[in-house]
């Protein structure tokens, strides 16, 4: 209860500071919308916002699913093959050095203006934290457990399935929480590069049309979407790794 009360207190302080800053005479209404104006935009444009939010959510979930599948497979492959790991890991890191605002238009040209570019951008952003975390989890297994499996005559595949993959689950969910949060950013960048629907496009149009309250309303929904995905990933970890929760409490 203390934790919930602290969260509510901090949120109330943030909203109060936001309202106070927006109420200053030196702050232009076209630059910063107040919380009351944002709530009014949420009420007046609710159907429009939700319609576009559904499109963005589909892009986020599909792109996240692609990155999960590709990231786990690639991490396992690098774990099993040292040569692949040494060759691919620098390229994996280098892929994150390229600004996504540069790649987004290229993806649009490659995949047209449909859902393809958005999925590619979301998957690319989410791929790195998932792959790196799963790989670290696979390599963090207690060496004594590996010796035990070898002494029992277990095959490499059996060791991977019964020891290494279960041990990497907490690391996987750590990467999933990060990926779930940044996936919303990827979808927005994809919609900015070219889209006919979505919250990112709606926010961009609202900014160009000086509809500042609608812009802030869209940002609030995007923020809630990212927080909800983070919470779902945390819940999934508690269900899939109950032993990790017990160890953390101890």
Structural class: mainly alpha
Low-confidence stretches: none
The total beta strand count reads 0
The pLDDT mean sits at 86
* Shape type: globular
Strand share of the residues?
under 5%
- Number of helix segments? 11
What is the radius of gyration computed over CA atoms, rounded to a whole number of angstroms? 22 Å
Order of helix and strand elements from N to C terminus:
HHHHHHHHHHH
Largest sheet: none
Estimated helix fraction: over 70%
> Distance between termini?
20 Å
Can you offer a commentary on this structure?
The protein has 250 residues and is an all-alpha fold. It has helices at residues 2-22, 35-44, 46-80, 82-95, 100-111, 116-138, 143-151, 156-193, 199-208, 212-240, 242-249. The longest helix is centred in the last third of the chain and has 38 residues, at 156-193.
List the keywords.
mainly alpha
Write the layout of secondary structure elements.
Blueprint: H1 2-22, H2 35-44, H3 46-80, H4 82-95, H5 100-111, H6 116-138, H7 143-151, H8 156-193, H9 199-208, H10 212-240, H11 242-249
Q: In a nutshell, what does this entry contain?
A:
The chain has eleven helices and no strands.
